Amino acid sequence: MASRFPAIVERGYSTGLYPVIAAAGARLSGRLPFSLAEGLVAAFALIVSWRAVRFVAKAARRRGYLREAWLPAAANVTIAAGILYLTFLLVWGLNYAREPFAVAAGLDASPPSVAELRAACADLVQRANALREGLPEDARGVMRLTDGLAGARGRAEAGYRHAGAVHAVLAGRSSPAKPIVASRVFSYLGITGIFFPWTGEPNVNADVPDPDLPFAIAHEMAHAHGFAREDEAGYVGYLACRFHPDPDFRYSGVLAASIYALNALAGVDRAAHRELADRRSPAVRRDLRALQEWSDRYSGRLSRASRSVNNAYLRSQGQAEGVRSYGRMVDLLVAERRGRSAAPAPRDNLGDGT
Q1: What digits encode the pLDDT tens for the residues 289-299?
Q2: Most buried residue, 171, 215, 242, 298, by CB count within 10 Å?
């Protein structure tokens, strides 16, 4: 029903009730230095496993127990699942049915032409090259966060404060991103972060290489700000990085955006893709190589299975393209560039020509 009335969901829930819920979650779980969500998931898994073992043990000891107990057990599981899904919808999930971000931002997000896509890619490559200059590096020449994950987590909200001054729908507090203790497991699953709606916590994989870490944090915080769709969360995360006062966040956001855009370009114009990829500076190429090495190190059956599960989940929430909806972020990147071309705006404080 909610998906049929996005304007009502936008006004009544996404910009009405949900900010109150998000603020309450930020006050409660945001003060904890660890992920409450991770502990709750572990406890839930233990309880479910314990109950399942007890059920099987009773069925093995008592003749006829399975015949008598399966229907009440199935009813209990169904009720519990229904309660979990209902609370999911009420505390966050209805955001899947809100109006597209392009409507709130006044952007023309119609599918780009190949020429528009080429121009956007060229712009992003140039900006990434410029923003990469002067950033700290590790011994391999890869971009390094001087304050590490903890510092980046603390600085991330500044991007949303500045972005909220431009797009009011991005204003408001959210819970800070939390590092995942089981980050190595998430690496094997190919997951850089996850938002847990029941506690309102953005969670980030601590193993993610530094060039991508600020964007990964901003992306998960976009979910906490009420943007459930992956394509929009990616774009909102990019905006939070773009308007951030610190150059490492701005670079990470533009680097991620350039990857999405050039991947889209490769599907329609391979020659232009190769030409623009060759324009990347040596420093940017080192960062991309580090990201690829990290991905290759953990790639395997688990990551492919995780992708299939994520694809099914996104489809269940009305994202018809599944994980391919990540590519729709490119439409918003081009729409932003259209807006700048149509109505030149005053220069902001980013120092990257946007």
Answers
A1: 999 999 889 88
A2: 215
Torsion over CA of 344, 348, 352 and 354, rounded to 10 degrees? -20
Whether residue 84 is found in the same domain as residue 112: no
Q: Which residues contact 215 (CB under 8 A, 6 or more apart)?
A: 237, 238, 241, 252, 253, 255, 256
Q: Is residue 258 part of a domain?
A: yes
71 and 130, same domain (yes or no):
no
Domain of 74? Answer: 2-94
Average pLDDT over residues 191-217: 95
- Nearest Cα neighbor of 188 from 267, 289, 296, 270 is 296
pLDDT score at 352: 43
Inter-residue contact 110 to 337 (CB < 8 Å): no
Q: Are residues 147 and 269 in the same domain?
A: yes
Residue 270: predicted pLDDT = 94
Nearest to 150 by CA among 86, 210, 225: 210
